[in-house]
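Supplementary Methods, section 5.1.

A reviewer requested that the exact input to the structure prediction be made available. We therefore reproduce it here, unchanged from the version used in the analyses.
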Amino acid sequence: MRLTQDVIATARTYYNPLKQYSLDLRGLKIGIMENLGAANDQFDMIDLSDNSIAVVENIPKFNRLEMLILCNNLINRISSNLGANVPNCRELVFEEIEHLKDWINLSILSPIANLSLIDNPIESEPNFRARVVKLLPQLTVLNFKKVSQKDREEAANL
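The structure derived from this sequence is encoded token-by-token as follows.
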């Protein structure tokens, strides 16, 4: 399915338990991220889970967006301008990322504090936590576990 302005306009919107105004684009079999500008930067959270998205791109400037959920997609690349376009995004949830180099562009997301990469093949890479903390030193939570001082020391030693 194409992500059109009509799909965005008729999608379910709600306030989540964190009191974030949310746009539900879950399970629509969207293949390409397009026309997201129709959301007019009015959402705190966008859920694009359970789609067929391969490339995280074409995200317009969303100053308000705090959380982006992209579970159960086919993501293999992340646009280099993601950080500039979502400068206040503090929480990201991804799955199916196979290599750390595939999401190296996340390092430009300076405000990111919570990152979930649970059930990603990259979790089995050597020094996974340390490498992620080195890439994103501002993280406070990784895979729903607090980033410890030990994690930070291991990252510094890489």
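The beta strands are 12-15, 21-24, 45-47, 55-56, 67-70, 77-78, 91-94, 114-116, 141-142, 145-146. These observations are discussed further in the main text.
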